[in-house]
């Protein structure tokens, strides 16, 4: 009886130890899939691991190549993830590979995905650190969607206000939508512009035809373009015209100054033009001279018929006739 009890105790202890060993072995095998193979270690730095844990799988181009050994938080923005990779992948992973954290399916555990770089690079070595890429988390996406929804609500409210204003005929566009007279005017204006454009095209076409029919050779334009002497002469003519215009301006200023002085009462001309008394005296004097000349002619005619001077005047007439 005592022997049977001891054997049962020993059997129970063995069963308990076996069970414990089996659980420990399963745990170790689960956390380290490459427990009995050759491995090397690499790491990557992330700002957010999104729930990644020790023992999660590491994949390279979709193939399981290792597990997460440890996660170490250096500071509030730096988290180092250490990974154990199968040694046979040394020749495949390059130093420019990029690591990112994703999920294994929709509801699966988190994994580390390693993708090759775009350009060729040297093979990776044990202990190297590769670049990382942090994907947008679900919370960030929800936050962004929330902001987007708020902006969409504000935009919708503004659109409703604009639509209501358009329906009520407020603003320029509202008047255009509701005022048929303005719409007809705009249509007429558009038709007029179209007709004007057509007429302009016709005029341009006719102008091109006129220019094309002009005989360029032996024309003034041809001479001015190709004859350097004529070009120089034309340049001299323009220079002379410019000098003449300057001189005309100077003469105009002189005449203006002279007329101003005359108008202001300076000089004989102004005196003659403005003094009416002197003008009347001058007119009377000229009248007296004319009357004196007339009387002198009459006296000379009388002297011709006087017997004292008759022979003298006949002699003068004979001398005058002889000279002719």
The helix-strand sequence is HEEEEEEEHHHHHHHH
| DSSP strand count | 7
Number of helices: 9
Helix content: 55-70%
Largest sheet: 7 strands, mixed, barrel
Rounded mean pLDDT is 78
Q: How would the global form be characterised?
A: rod-shaped
| Unreliable sequence segments | none
Strand order of the largest sheet: 1-4-3-2-6-5-7
- Overall radius of gyration: 61 Å
Helix and strand composition category = alpha/beta
Strand fraction band?
A: 15-25%
Cα separation of the termini: 204 Å
What attributes does this structure have?
324 residues, alpha/beta, 16% strand
Describe it.
The longest helix has 36 residues, at 228-263. It is built from 9 helices and 7 strands. By secondary structure, the chain is α/β, with parallel strands linked by helices. Among the domains are: 1-31; 37-135; 138-178, no CATH class; 180-214. A hairpin with a 2-residue loop joins β2 and β3. The model has no long low-confidence stretch (mean pLDDT 78). It has helices at residues 2-31, 138-167, 171-178, 180-213, 220-226, 228-263, 268-274, 276-305, 310-323, and strands spanning 39-46, 57-60, 63-75, 78-86, 98-103, 110-115, 129-133. The chain is rod-shaped and about 215 Å long. It has a 7-stranded mixed barrel with strand order 1-4-3-2-6-5-7.
């Amino acid at each position: 009886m005592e022997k049977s009890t001891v054997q049962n105790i020993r059997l129970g202890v063995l069963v308990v130890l076996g069970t414990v060993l089996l659980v420990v072995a399963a745990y170790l095998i689960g956390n380290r899939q490459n427990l009995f193979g050759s491995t090397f270690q690499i790491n990557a730095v992330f700002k957010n691991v999104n729930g990644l844990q020790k023992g999660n799988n590491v994949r390279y181009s979709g193939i399981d190549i290792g597990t997460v050994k440890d996660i170490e938080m250096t500071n509030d923005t730096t988290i180092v993830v250490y990974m154990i990779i199968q040694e046979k992948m040394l020749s495949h992973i390059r130093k420019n590979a990029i690591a990112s954290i994703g999920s294994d399916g929709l509801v699966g555990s988190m994994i580390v995905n390693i993708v090759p770089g775009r350009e060729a690079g040297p093979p990776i070595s044990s202990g190297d650190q590769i670049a990382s890429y942090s994907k947008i988390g679900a919370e960030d996406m929800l936050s962004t969607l929330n902001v987007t929804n708020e902006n969409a609500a504000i935009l919708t409210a503004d659109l409703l206000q604009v639509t209501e204003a358009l329906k009520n005929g407020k603003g320029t566009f509202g008047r255009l939508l509701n005022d048929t007279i303005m719409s007809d005017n705009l249509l007429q204006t558009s038709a007029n512009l179209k007709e004007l454009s057509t007429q302009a095209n016709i005029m341009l076409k006719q102008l091109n035809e006129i220019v094309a029919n002009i005989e360029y050779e032996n024309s003034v334009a041809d001479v001015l373009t190709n004859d350097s002497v004529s070009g120089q002469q034309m340049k001299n003519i323009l220079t002379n015209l410019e000098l003449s215009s300057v001189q005309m301006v100077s003469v105009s200023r002189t005449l203006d100054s002279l007329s101003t002085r005359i108008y202001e009462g300076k000089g004989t001309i102004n005196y003659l033009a403005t003094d009416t008394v002197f003008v009347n005296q001058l007119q009377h004097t000229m009248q007296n001279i004319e009357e004196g000349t007339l009387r002198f002619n009459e006296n000379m005619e009388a002297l011709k018929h006087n017997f004292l001077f008759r022979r003298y005047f006949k002699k003068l007439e004979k001398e005058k006739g002889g000279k002719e």
